[in-house]
């Protein structure tokens, strides 16, 4: 069995690169790299690769009390909606030195609760949830927890967590206006589940668009999922 190579330290990288070890630390971290001269960053990165330096993330987490991991929870990974969202989130977090942990709740509240608990136990630095419902008891358990929460695509009815959302009201209003402008008079709506903000807001927007066109009630059929 081949002998293990000795661990290369930040101090050794600093000596080989001819800079202070704190400069190496800043240059190796995407979050602080911009504070260092680009030429020095390039020299430090080249030296680290040449020496075979590997960051000790466990030791760093103990020292800083930050894991540099973010939990991303979605209701259904098979949905065509989420790949582009996941790609954008993962790419942005990776540029900032964060690892994205993705989990799928399968629209199961108990599974959702277990996933959030497991991520908190692993000390993620934040949670991004695409899995919230309007009246979300699971979310209630963690809103005041140790990791900040941001909601995406859906929100809950409390408004306590920041959310990144599409304008569902305006979107369906534009769809109704477009169809009406083409001369269609009988316009229906297959609404999403009303327990989700997306379904509820689109249904509300559809009704408002009908009133704006002088029609008191347009037909709505609610989908199961």
UniProtKB/TrEMBL annotation:
Protein name listed in UniProt: HTH lacI-type domain-containing protein
Organism listed in the record: Rhodoplanes roseus
Keywords (A to Z) from UniProt: DNA-binding, Transcription, Transcription regulation
GO molecular function (one): DNA-binding transcription factor activity
PROSITE patterns given in the database record: HTH_LACI_2
Record's keyword annotation contains Lyase: no
InterPro entries tied to this protein: HTH_LacI (IPR000843), Lambda_DNA-bd_dom_sf (IPR010982), Peripla_BP/Lac1_sug-bd_dom (IPR001761), Peripla_BP_I (IPR028082)
One Pfam match: Peripla_BP_1
Stored SUPFAM superfamilies: lambda repressor-like DNA-binding domains (SSF47413), Periplasmic binding protein-like I (SSF53822)
All copies of domain HTH lacI-type, residue ranges: 8-64
Keyword DNA-binding tagged: yes
């Amino acid at each position: 069995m081949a002998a293990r190579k000795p661990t290369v330290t930040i101090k050794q990288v600093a000596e080989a690169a001819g800079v202070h070890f704190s400069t190496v630390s800043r240059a190796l971290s995407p979050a602080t790299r911009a504070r260092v001269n680009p030429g020095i960053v390039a020299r430090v990165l080249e030296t680290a690769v040449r020496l075979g330096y590997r960051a000790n993330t466990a030791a760093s987490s103990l020292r800083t009390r930050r894991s540099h991991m973010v939990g991303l929870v979605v209701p259904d990974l098979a949905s065509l909606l989420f790949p582009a969202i996941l790609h954008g989130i993962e790419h942005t977090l990776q540029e900032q030195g964060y690892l994205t942990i993705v989990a799928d709740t399968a629209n199961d509240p108990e599974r959702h609760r277990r996933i959030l608990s497991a991520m908190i136990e692993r000390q993620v630095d934040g949670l991004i949830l695409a899995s919230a419902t309007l009246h979300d008891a699971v979310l209630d358990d963690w809103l005041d927890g140790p990791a900040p929460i941001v909601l995406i695509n859906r929100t809950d009815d409390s408004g306590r967590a920041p959310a990144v959302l599409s304008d569902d009201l305006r979107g369906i209003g534009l769809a109704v206006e477009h169809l009406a402008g083409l001369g269609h008079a009988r316009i229906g709506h297959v609404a999403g589940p009303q327990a989700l903000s997306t379904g509820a807001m689109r249904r509300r927007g559809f009704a408002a668009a009908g009133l704006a066109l002088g029609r008191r009630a347009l037909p709505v059929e609610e989908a199961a999922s």
